[in-house]
Amino acid sequence: MTDLETPSSAYIHVPFCQHRCGYCDFTLVARKDHLIDDYLAAMEQQLATVEPGIELQTLFLGGGTPTHLSIEQLERLFAAILSRFQLSDDCEFSIEANPLNLCIDKIDFLQQSGVNRVSLGVQSFHSEILTFLERDHQPEQIFEIVQNLRDRIPNTSLDLIFAVPGQSLQNWQDSLADAVGLGIPHLSTYGLTIEKGTSFWSRQQSGLFDLPADELAGTMYEYSLEYLSSQGLQHYEISNFARPGFECRHNEVYWTGHPYFGFGPGAASYLKGVRRQNHRSVATWLKRIAAGESPISEEEELDPESRAREAVIFGLRRRVGIDLADFESRYGFTLDELAETAMEKNITAGLLEQTETHLRLTQAGCLLADSVVIDFL
User: Is residue 269 classed as helix, strand or coil in its secondary structure?
Assistant: First the structure.
């Protein structure tokens, strides 16, 4: 498939949470459950714009917290999705979840509805770190919830956050060991970043806390690479580790530059070379759809060179890197034509390495990936 063909992947954004954590800058609303019915009606309207019968290979419900919705509300959302799309026999059907939303009845419902992959926002196995991050669960609850989940939906992924104020290297090592001990097949690790507009940004600017030194954050990341690899979880993307066959197929669609649908406030789509993003404001998205207006806030048709440069930026996230021959075939440029200077600079610096077939980040390059990809813009 090229990025100009009909997508076989869809992302559904569910913007509801019980609480907005201090580090979160995602599109969501907290404690506004009275809007859920309006959201479901709007989602039914937005989905109705799609020609029915398209088969999906991946379907991803993100948020927010999709599992914040009740079983009845999820049932209505799933029905709206399945009224337009068909799921292939091996469709990866993922949903993001918070631990305390997952009672047995809801897990059973998800399994019976065809959900076969759950991404669980654990973040840490230490109570003091969870308290700082404003999470509502405790470490001892994680083990029972994950076991209940994996008994029904074995393809479970955990999210963990490192470089948190007050977090030691030992603390991070213990959390990784706890996650591995649960036998999960996929793990995502994210360094804590403080985004402008979040409550953590205001607190940091007021001097209420400092992030760990870059050296400690780098050591935590490097330990993740070594330890998780030794435990059979392969590093397949900058922040993601998986046992063979358990890589997130939906995210691979983004990283390999293939098209996808996006529905809901803040959701992005990539259709026939055009990138669109819906309004991030939940209220604006709701009002526009209710009025029969377009929910799109941004739209950009990428020219061939922009498509190629974007493909480099996404492609370098994958540890396998960019297949040089495939890249030229898909985008009509060689990497030398597109960015010879950027390549030479970063190869010399030890941040990129080139083989006969691929260009990829080195381990050192993974630590500085954001600065590397800027050179390719």
Answer: strand
Q: How far is residue 326 CA from its own chain's centroid? A: 25
Give domain limits for the chain: 9-256, 318-375
Long-range contact set of residues 173-176: C-beta below 8 Å, sequence gap at least 24: 173/223, 173/227, 174/125, 174/126, 175/124, 175/125, 175/126, 175/129, 176/223, 176/224, 176/227, 176/228
Kindly list the distances between the CA atom of residue 180 and the CA atoms of 18, 96, 222, 237, 329, in Å, as whole numbers in the listed order.
28, 20, 17, 18, 40
Give the Cβ contact number of residue 69 at 10 Å: 23
Count other Cβ atoms within 10 Å, centred on residue 340.
11
Neighbouring residues of 207: CB distance < 8 A, sequence distance ≥ 6: none
Name the class of domain 9-256. Answer: alpha beta
Give the strand pairing for 274-278 and 268-271: antiparallel
Q: Is 191 helix (H, G, I), strand (E, B) or coil?
A: strand
pTM of the model: 0.94
pLDDT digit string (tens) for the chain, length 377 residues: 455 678 999 999 999 998 889 888 888 888 999 999 999 999 999 999 999 999 999 999 999 999 999 999 999 999 999 999 999 999 999 999 999 999 999 999 999 999 999 999 999 999 999 999 999 999 999 999 999 999 999 999 999 999 999 999 999 999 999 999 999 999 999 999 998 889 999 898 988 888 888 999 999 999 999 999 999 999 999 999 999 999 999 999 999 999 999 999 999 999 998 999 999 999 999 999 999 999 999 999 999 999 999 999 999 999 999 999 999 999 999 999 998 999 999 999 999 999 999 999 999 999 899 899 999 88
Q: Looking at the domain 318-375, which fold is it?
A: Arc Repressor Mutant, subunit A (1.10.10)
